[in-house]
UniProtKB/TrEMBL annotation:
Cited SMART domains: GIYc
Biological process (GO), any one: SOS response
PROSITE patterns: GIY_YIG
PANTHER family, sorted: EXCINUCLEASE CHO, UVRC/OXIDOREDUCTASE
Keyword line: DNA damage, DNA excision, DNA repair, Endonuclease, Excision nuclease, Hydrolase, Nuclease, SOS response
Upper classification of the organism: Bacteria, Pseudomonadati, Pseudomonadota, Gammaproteobacteria, Enterobacterales
Name of the featured protein: Excinuclease cho
Molecular functions per Gene Ontology: endonuclease activity; hydrolase activity
Species per Swiss-Prot/TrEMBL record: Izhakiella australiensis
Annotated coiled-coil segments of the chain: none
């Protein structure tokens, strides 16, 4: 077996252990050239190996079979299943939902982040708040979504460095009333700490800098159906508080999905925010 050496350690050449997975050929015949989600299954009947999505399931799965970097997963796979969707949006939503539900071995795990936090403007100063304490779907003046307090403060520090904002006024370091901070002497702070800039002007610049990170509140009083209609079919994606509840083909079927309304979902927000707010899809209040 060929080996390469990286940083003093041997690294096996994945192309040397790759063999075309002939045992998966029976699964290929039924694969459609349509949007949807596909799953590689191993010996386990409950734990999938890998879940992916594509606008063309057949083409994407075939590309996996020709990828030496995935040799380990392909050797262990025993069959491939799929679920078609009306379009790309439905595939994105279903993939994220299934990965969180089944936790496939070879996927980057998507779990509910109990430490999900954001920056909230309170009394002119950004504070770190957590989704477990604040409803991110409804709370105004939230900026950015972060996996931890440390990540949120790092983002705030980067913002301060970019816009010459004052660390002490942002709570990033101790403040001495009326005394210039160290970054002001270096020309990296506009001087709100020592009166060279007014506190009001500093606050307005902070708000403007944060605006690009604003978390949009859920704009409807309850769940809605997002209609995706294409050559491949029609689906109504049922969503509430940026949380994907499932998809149906008829509006009347949506009531079964809306009996328990969920809290904010980060993955749903990232997938749905632009499509929902852009007006690209018809939206049906439920």
């Amino acid at each position: 077996m060929s080996r390469r050496f990286t940083a003093g350690r041997p690294e096996y050449d994945k192309t040397a252990i790759y063999q075309y997975p002939e045992h998966l050929r029976p699964s290929l015949e039924a694969l459609p050239g349509q949007p949807g989600v596909y799953t590689f299954h191993g010996e386990s009947t409950t734990l999938p190996q890998y879940i992916g999505k594509s606008i063309n399931i057949r083409s994407r799965v075939l590309s996996h079979l020709r990828t030496p970097d995935e040799a380990s997963m392909l050797r262990q796979a025993r069959r491939i299943s799929f679920i078609t969707t009306a379009g790309e949006l439905g595939a994105l939503l279903l993939e994220a939902q299934m990965i969180k539900q089944y936790q496939p071995l070879f996927n980057k795990r998507l779990r509910k982040n109990r430490q999900l936090c954001s920056l909230h403007l309170l009394n002119g100063r950004p504070e770190v708040v957590y989704a477990k304490n604040v409803d991110f779907a409804a709370a105004p003046d939230l900026f950015g979504l972060y996996p931890s307090r440390y990540a949120a403060l790092q983002a705030l520090q980067k913002l301060a460095d970019t816009h010459q904002l004052c660390y002490p006024l942002l709570g990033l370091e101790p403040t001495s009333r009326g005394k210039a901070c160290f970054r002001y002497a270096l020309g990296r702070c506009a001087g709100a700490c020592c009166g060279a800039e007014t506190a009001e002007n500093h606050f307005q610049r902070l708000r403007a800098a944060l605006e690009v990170l604003r978390v949009q509140c859920w704009p409807w009083p309850g769940p809605v159906g997002l209609v995706e209609d294409s050559l491949h079919g029609k689906q109504i994606h049922v969503v509430c508080n940026w949380y994907y509840l499932g998809s149906v083909t008829e509006v009347e079927q949506a009531s079964a999905l809306t009996r328990t309304l969920p809290a904010f979902d980060q993955d749903g927000y990232k997938i749905l925010c632009k499509p929902l707010l852009s007006g690209s899809y018809d939206v049906i209040p439920l």
